[in-house]
Amino acid sequence: MLANLLVGLATMVLCLIMQALLVSLAVRFYARRKHLVVGGSFAATMFLLCAVMLLLVLGNALQIGIWAGVFMLLEEFNTFSVAVYHSAVNFATLGYGDIVMSEQHRLLGPLEAVNGVLMIGVSTAVVMWALQDAMQGAVAEQN
């Protein structure tokens, strides 16, 4: 159990680093194109918000891949596609239960779910920040 906890925590730290890098990239991307919001069209604003969201979703998808890779290294699954599916179910906290890990590594599922909740929450916060900033820019432009 301790080994699984250490593997899970190390994977969570790796995912946090990746998420932080993509959040930084998304915020810079938004900041460099903020002029599209202030004085820009609705379509330009939507493009910018969608691009920020897609960068963050890409980060979540990469984290699912990292967890799937860990599952493959632990020889939990025979194919990467099954490992990715199981990882996505855990990360999104769906909990279908149609594919279950061995008792030896079962603790990693809940750890990935905690990781997913946190990282999806971070993504949501950044998208909400960009949306609020865009709305404030639009309102300021009207005044």
In short:
The protein has 143 residues and is an all-alpha fold. Helix content is 77%, strand content 0%.
Topology:
Elements: H1 2-32, H2 42-73, H3 80-91, H4 108-142
Helix pairs in contact: 1-2, 1-4, 2-3, 2-4, 3-4
Give an overview in words.
It is a single chain. With 143 residues, the chain is an all-alpha fold. It has one domain (2-142). Helices cover 77% and strands 0% of the residues. The protein is built from 4 helices and no strands. The protein has helices spanning 2-32, 42-73, 80-91, 108-142. The longest helix is centred in the C-terminal third of the chain and has 35 residues, at 108-142. This is Two pore domain potassium channel family protein. It holds the Pfam family Ion_trans_2. One of its GO terms (biological process) is monoatomic ion transmembrane transport. Residues 66-130 form the Potassium channel domain.
Compute the separation of the termini in Å.
60 Å
pLDDT averaged over residues: 92
Report the biggest beta sheet as strand number plus sense, adding barrel if it closes.
Answer: none
How many E strands? 0
Q: Kindly provide the radius of gyration, computed on alpha-carbon positions and rounded to a whole number of angstroms.
A: 18 Å
Poorly predicted runs are none
Name the helix and strand elements from N-terminus to C-terminus, one letter apiece.
HHHH
The figure for the number of domains is 1
Share of β-strand residues: under 5%
Summing up helix and strand content along with how strands pair, one would put the structural category as mainly alpha
Helical residue percent band: over 70%
- Count of DSSP H/I helices: 4
- What is the global morphology? elongated
Transmembrane segments: 6-30, 42-70, 113-131
InterPro entries: K_chnl_dom
Keywords: Ion channel, Ion transport, Membrane, Transmembrane, Transmembrane helix, Transport
Domain Potassium channel: 66-130
